[in-house]
Amino acid sequence: MRLAKYILTPMVAAAMAATVAIPTASADEYPSQPVEMTVLFGGSAKTIAQILSDMMAKELGQPVPAISKTGGGGAVGYSYTKDQPADGYAMVWNSNSISTSHHKGNMDFNYSAFDAVARVSLEVPAMAVRADSGWNNLQDFIAAAKVSPGKMKIGISGKGSFTHLTSAALFDAAGIEVTFVPYGKGRAPAELLGGRIDAALQWPSQFKSHADAGTLKIVAVTSADRIPLLPDVATAKEQGVDVDIVMWRGLAVPAGTPADRIAKLDAAAKAVVESEEFIAHSKKIGFKPAYMSAADFGALIAADDARIAKQMQDLGLAKK
User: Fold this and answer.
1) Angle CA(118)–CA(120)–CA(126) in degrees, nearest 5?
2) How many whole angstroms separate alpha carbon 257 and alpha carbon 254?
3) Between the chain's N and C termini, which has fewer beta carbons within 10 Å?
C-alpha cells in the first residue's frame, strides 16, 4: 500500500501559517461580555455602587450591571459571588462586612475566598442625638451617660454590624456603659425622633437632612479628620475620645481569577475613583474616594479581619 504524498505550495503554506497566527478575539480580549457587580446593601452602598458601575462600564467598554443581593449582613451576596466562575466576569462590592459576617457565623468562608481588586471609598460613621436633648457635643453626652451608667440607649442596625462595632469602640474609649438597641437598617432617624433611643451612629447621609431641618444634632464623626459633608462637626478625637474608625468599600472577585484580568479591573477602578466626576459625586453623597491597588487592598483586608475578629470576641459576638 502506497501512502499519498501531499506537497504544499509556497502560497498554500503561507495561507495556513497566517490562519494559525491570527488569534481569536473571544479568547484574547477581556472583557468581551458584561462584568456583573453584586451589591450587598442598600442606602449609600447601593448609590455609590451604581455610580461606580456606570463609570467602570465606560472604562471597560462593556456593561457593568449592579445587581442587588442583600441579606445576612452581606452573606447572601458574598455566597453568590464566591460560587461564580473565577473568570473576571463576577465582582462583589465588598466592605468590612466580609469579616463581620464571617465571624458572626453568617457564612463558613472568610475573605480568602476572594481576590482583592481595588479599594474605592471610605465612609465615616456619625453620631446623632435629638436636637432637643440638650447635648451639643460628644462630651455633653458622655457626661450625662456617666451620671446614669447603662441607661443611655444606643441604636444599632444589627448585632455585630459595623455600626455596632463602631459604637462599642467609641463608648469603650470614652469610658461609659451604654445599652445597645437593634432597630433595623435605615431606621436611625425615626427611632431617634420617636424617642426610643438616645443616640445612634450611622452614615452621615441618613442624618444630614434632619440636621439641616433642626430636628437632629450630629455631635461627632469617628474618623481622624473632619469630613467634607459635615465640616462643622468635630471628630471624636478632637473631643477627647481617641478613635479612628472608617468603613472601606471596594471590589473583589472569586479567588483564582487570572491576575491580568484583576489588573484590568483595578486600572478601570483607579481611573474612575480619581476622576473629577466621581469626586464630585462623593461630595454630594458624603463619602471619600480612596483608591488602593489590589495588592495593598488585599493586605488591608487581612489586617482588618484580624482586628474585627478580636473586637467581636471581646464583645461576645463571634461565633464559637
Assistant:
1) 140
2) 6
3) N
In this predicted structure, the answer to whether residue 187 has a pLDDT above a threshold of 90 is no
Report cis status (omega within 30 of 0) of the bond before 289: no
pLDDT at 28: 60
Could you tell me the end-to-end alpha-carbon distance of the chain, in angstroms, rounded to an integer? 77
Q: Are 154 and 220 in contact (CB under 8 A)?
A: no
| Interacting residues of 178 by C-beta distance below 8 A, sequence separation 6+ | 145, 150, 152, 153, 154, 167, 171
Q: Which three cell numbers stand for residue 80?
A: 453568590
CA atoms within a 13 Å half-sphere pointing along the CA-CB vector of 160: 21
Asked if pLDDT for residue 6 goes beyond 60, the answer is: no
Domains present along the chain, CATH in parentheses: 35-123+247-314 (3.40.190.150), 126-221 (3.40.190.10)
Alpha carbons 252 and 51: distance in angstroms, whole number: 17
pLDDT tops 80 at residue 13: no
53: CB partners within 8 A, 6+ apart: 37, 64, 65, 66
Q: How far apart are CA 137 and CA 238, in angstroms?
A: 11
